[in-house]
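FAQ: What does a multi-protein file look like?

Like this. Sequence, then tokens, then the next protein.
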Amino acid sequence: MPRASNSAARSRRAKGTQTAKGAPNATASVAPAPKKSAGALRNLPLDFVKGALVVVMVVYHALNILSDAGPEAYTYLRFVSGAFILVSGYVIASFFERPFKADPAGTSRKLISRGLKLLLLFTLLNVLIHLTGFGNPNKGPTGIDRFLGSLLEVYVQGAPGAASFQILLPIAYLLILAPLVLALAEAGVWVLAAAIAAALIEPMLGGSSANATFMVLGVIGLSGGLLLSTARPLAQVRNGWVALAGLVAVTALAPLTNDNLVTYALQTSLLLKLLYDIAQSTDLGSQLPRALILLGRTSLVCYILQIIFLQVLNRAFLGVKWPLGGELALAALATVLVMWVAAATLDRLRASYTWIDRMYKLVFG
């Protein structure tokens, strides 16, 4: 009898947790769903890759701003600009393909809005440089009249030395163009084949527009990402040391690949794949990977900050140009540390203050 009584009680309690038609009762319906952590909403290996690229870009900019090194010093670093463009295309494919299929108009507005914000940010940064004179002296004289007189060189040709923060411009254009690329891919157009064909034709045009060259790379990254979303996963190099050895070997091919856009895109894509494999075989909870992930999450802020900090160093040392060596290595290390501290501080402020998080998303989101 006690068993029957307990069973009846349990039955009454079970019924009491439901309302008519089996709907959850009021208490159950208002119970808050567990919140997902930020890490659960992000691709941490991809953030790791972006963070590694941020560090490489520090070295590149340190050479450019603080060093008297010649063009040969950049041979093994030239992949970094193209890598950011390829990653941008891949990110668009990974995070916007499904939303575009569900809501083409809304997703298009979001992508174009982000592109226009980045275009506005690029313009404001360059206007500030020309108004204040606080820019890279290697890029020539500053002045708002000079900037206004070089709009074609900046916004169409992407002429070297015509502007600062130049990589932001083709990324902005890629975001604005992305809805068209997604629509063509949805219609069955072979966008990747068209982008590779454009890369093959590009040398015949004499590299007349750096912006167009980077746009081709971006479309290759975007269409390649769309293709990967429907194909079988690529084979992973599961041993981190083997992936690292492959990374070094592929980087060593730079003198053979840098002068042709197709081979450059292929080499850079392989480097990104091997970096991603290294991330997947690494304990991302340990200290160094966590630092790289943080830099990757705030890559746009870090990109802007590193250039500003290196310009401050350049003026602090009265424009002295250092040879390759210890001084340059220390300057690069100091820049990475400043970026990490700033990124960690920003991360905490965004978590603590809603208005800071909203401002960050408004400008950089």
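And here is the next protein:
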Amino acid sequence: MIRKLFSSSLYLDKWLVILRAITVIIIMEYGLEVFSKKYMEGNTAWLKDIQFPLPLFMAYVGKTTELLGGISLIPGLFTRTISILLVINMSFITFIMGNAKLPGEEILSFLLLLLFAAFFFAGSGKWSLDCRNKMLRARYCPILRYRKRLKMRALLVIFFLTLTFVSFSQTIFPSLSPKGRIEQKIGLTNISVDYERPAARGRKVFGELVKYDKLWRTGAGNCTKIGFSEAVVIGNKSISKGTYSIFTIPGTSEWTLILNKDTTLYGLTSYDATKDIIRLKVKAHSTDRYYESLTIDIDIVPNNAIVYLSWENTQISFQVKTESDKLANGFIQQYLLTDKSRNSDEYAAAAEYYYYLNKDLDRAVLLIDKAIAMKEESWYYRQKVDILEMQKKYEEAIDCATLAISIDQKRTNWDSRTKQQSETEYKKRIEFFKRQKNKINH
């Protein structure tokens, strides 16, 4: 049985019928996209991305070829001719539009390319109109003439060699708009941006390549996406945690920033304004630096972020406020000011949080005192001295530093050198506090 499978011409005919059926199912699914406005807009946008001439017309040519090819394969009619057209079509999709991403996104189009190449050399098999019609048989049915040479063993060798090629092949053409990603932790919130980065390449970007007052996908290819691990506030509107697509409407001095719920979009295909969750007006600014490629950055301000979008000599930005302060203050109110926590480091960390934000310093002193009461850690005292200095309470800072020297000298886990360094540092600060105190008094 196994030997027959590898050598019998009868089984070869059956395999060709099976391959035809599988290929028809796949290629018809592709070809029927010609009747879908959504898919045709996406294919047209794809061709525009690579600056292909007549993108709308060529998109319809490609899809129509796929549809007619599928219909032709059903009865096996004019198989070799249609296979040549589809080999060209699939080669274009695989190597030009898809940048030869093998293995990866273009593996299916590449396998279809191989199938149509096989149909070109072998025809559509004994059970087809090509082989039944005397006029077509000589040209379209080579399998009847070279049956002894077309052994299944040879086809399997070609198949496994193809798999080996696909497994080891790599992208041979650089992407015109390479993918970019930036991820940043802001306070207690993770913010990420995934986008494709088109380049100017000598073109005038805003006003020509990207039209003013027209919706722009703010990137290339698949829609640009921004994600938040926690709820945030943008433009005084609360945005739930999740991932959103970014669109903009550029203007000469002002842009409209749009976040949309649909993250499956390719370009502007099927964009639905009813799914917008926010539209925000932002100012456009000129930059001294020239950005050859679209660049998105995230800058950190205390527990919040500013997202910058720059291309050419134009830049916009918008603020993202996290709920980190709200969560931190809620924890302090619920667990620390009520003495529910027995972890001294939590009290000290809360005091440090207020210190670095330079707010609620009286509460910071209260919290660090609670930490010291639980454990006399050396950095707790340094933290308290820092807070008192920020408050310009120099007398209290001197008293705290003097007490810290005394406690540090009694630490059994410190060597003499460490104790001496600590004492020297505190004495320098005490002298500084005395000078500052005298300035105030005078």
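Q: Is there any per-entry metadata?
A: Some entries carry free-text notes. For the entry above: The longest strand covers residues 304-322.
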